[in-house]
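Encoded backbone
================
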Amino acid sequence: MSVVIDAVEHDSPAERVGICAGDVLISLNGHEIMDVLDYRFYQTERRIAVSVLQPSGKTKKYHLKKREEEEIGLLFETYLMDQKRSCRNKCIFCFIDQLPKGLRESLYFKDDDSRLSFLFGNYITLTNITEHEIERIIRMHINPINISVHTTNPELRVKMMANKNAGEALKIIRRFEDAGIRMNCQLVLCPGWNDGEELKRTLRDLTALSMVECIAAVPVGLTRFREGLTPLKPFDEKTAAQTLDILNAFGDECVRRYGERRVYGADEFYLLAKRPMPPAEYYGDFLQLENGVGLWALLADEAQKALMEIETEPLERDRQITIATGVAAFPLLHSVAAQCEAKSAHLSCRTVGIINYFFGEKITVAGLVTATDLLEQLKDIDLGEELLIPSVMLRREGDLFLDSISLDEVAERLGVRVTPVDNDGWALVQAIFG
């Protein structure tokens, strides 16, 4: 497959040799370019022969020189140089299937694309991967690959993912292991399905593989929009505690075997089980933050270090602000706010845990709080001069909430400046003190 060049960066190696927008990229050093992974891999050489098909129909080869870390300078219509691949599964726990109508169109797209796993850390199920991609990952030694495993029981995996190939796809994990490809694995746990003895089986299988660096277990998220879907029940205090016991036992064994824990439960399991969060050092290199593993510990640790650096009164005038977050993170942010208040006689910081009526009260994470709930629950509160919210409430561009209400509209309707804050303890402390 060839790819049309959308633009050429000014003063880039490609522009200097005369490559133009509208040309079709065919190959780099004789290697056919199918998508962004091919392009990134084969453009690293210092001398590159670029073959293109010009609009006139003439094929031309350019020879360019560049620094090893320098980009060629070609731009394409999409970052993948291709279309994203959608998921072919119908998982019983799929969160997208539990979304109501009327949200942003992009929220309903289910991706299952190995390229997004490498580029952005997305998780793939291996049911949508081609033999060409498997061989390319092994040949290019692309690391790490993030895999949604859920269970290593082939029959159960087929049932949970409603895909006849789901069990067979597990063999690809063994191929990656044999090829030395590092893997991070995700388990979405559903009570009565893949927890308990099935979880032990999965962990035995995965922890036996040396190239599986990290395994994150997260509890199934259930919204109130499940009509017509497979009946599922949430974790409660007892089942969450039982699950943590299994995860911690396998984690302890990995410490003995590999010198690192490798197996972790999401922060939500500790909240459900009403158990204290482990300290930051428990999580090693924090490889599974995107799955909510260690977020609490990392933010708490960073905030403590930031507060320790404050030796004198950080404010010269009175400052009254509000922090709004999800119910799950409320105790942590409330604690950080209180510690900040103790550092300054001028600071007054209210913390509000927003109940998720939009998706259902079982959804407690900040990233799924909508502007609708935010506006309704804050409208009668004196918010002070500024409202701080976690940046994960907004889409990547930082402008819209899940329900398509803009950040500017929320600020206007509440009559206060609204500041998104990244999930970083240093950033949080700085934002609190303004």
